[in-house]
Write a structure and sequence with these properties.
Blueprint lengths: L2 E5 L2 E3 L5 E8 L8 E8 L6 E6 L6 E3 L7 E6 L4 E6 L8 E9 L12 E2 L3 E5 L2
């Protein structure tokens, strides 16, 4: 049973930086060809795609709202995926979720992912 655990919740001020970590257990994200992604859900809004990364060749995909500010990366040896968030804005406030799925593509929709973490709160406020 694959399990994902997010860490790195925080309260930061606008323009500051925060990093999130997703640790995968119960399976190898390399051996099982897992593409990984980050989603977020703000109060009263639907869950939305933030960033995704392929399992082996470093391909990435970003939502337009975060492109140039956020960076997704992974350490397959440690079964870990990261989300570096720079120049944070109040609109980035949300619960952030890590997700994984087997395959070579990077799904942009929730339905493309099979495994989910429980989420971690990120609050950007002055």
């Amino acid at each position: 049973q694959v399990q994902l655990q997010e860490s790195g919740p925080g309260l930061v001020k606008p323009s500051q930086t925060l990093s999130l970590t997703c640790t995968v257990s119960g399976g190898s994200i390399t051996a099982s060809y897992y593409a990984c992604g980050w989603f977020r859900q703000a109060p009263g809004k639907e869950r939305e795609f933030v960033a995704g990364i392929s399992w082996n060749d470093g391909r990435t995909s970003y939502a337009s709202a975060v492109k140039g500010r956020f960076t997704i990366s992974r350490d397959n040896a440690k079964n870990t995926v990261f989300l570096q968030m720079n120049s944070l804005e109040p609109d980035d406030t949300a619960v952030y979720y890590c997700a994984a799925t087997r395959g070579v593509t990077i799904p942009l929709g929730q339905q493309g992912y099979d495994y989910w973490g429980r989420g971690t709160q990120v609050t950007v406020s002055s």
